[in-house]
Amino acid sequence: MVAMVELQINEPTNVPEWLFVMFAVCTTVLVAVHIFALMISTYLLPNIDAVSKMETPGGPTRALRDSPHERMRGFIELAWAFSTVLGLFLFLVEIAILCWVKFWDYSFAAATAATVIVIPVLIVFVAFAIHFYHSLVVQKCETSVQDIEQLETMKRELDTATVKVNMF
């Protein structure tokens, strides 16, 4: 938002209109993404705080299970993805576009240098994000498999106990 407000363009300029449009769209989407993530965080925190102070008949595990953060897990993950992944990606793109808008009339080399620096950073960022997300998915799958194995063990134990009870 500051980049859009503080950007000073000399008149007349040779910067093409499509570059201004790209800059405006990128800045607007960047701000919207962060405001959306902030909104979700702002509305969620009081709910989590309230649940953490609740005393329920089922104990703390029931309070956590009934907590809105479990029901809103998708929104939390969406806010995280928007703020970290998409927000940081757009911020890096914004820097490159801003350099082109600012230096178009003065130095093609400066704009190119900024782009040459940002592109490898974007590639590393995307690679890290993919690796990190893949690690999270693998961990989630392993946890689910362990949970299923525990449920199967519990079922076997209950079946065994039921058979023993029925024998007596």
TrEMBL record:
It is found in: Membrane. It comes from the Eukaryota. Gene3D superfamilies: Calcium release-activated calcium channel protein Orai. The keyword Isomerase does not apply. It is a multi-pass membrane protein. Keywords: Membrane, Transmembrane, Transmembrane helix. One of its GO terms (cellular component) is membrane. One of its GO terms (molecular function) is store-operated calcium channel activity. GO terms for biological process: store-operated calcium entry. The chain crosses the membrane at residues 20-45, 78-103, 109-130. Belongs to the Orai family. This is Calcium release-activated calcium channel protein 1. It comes from Papilio machaon (Old World swallowtail butterfly).
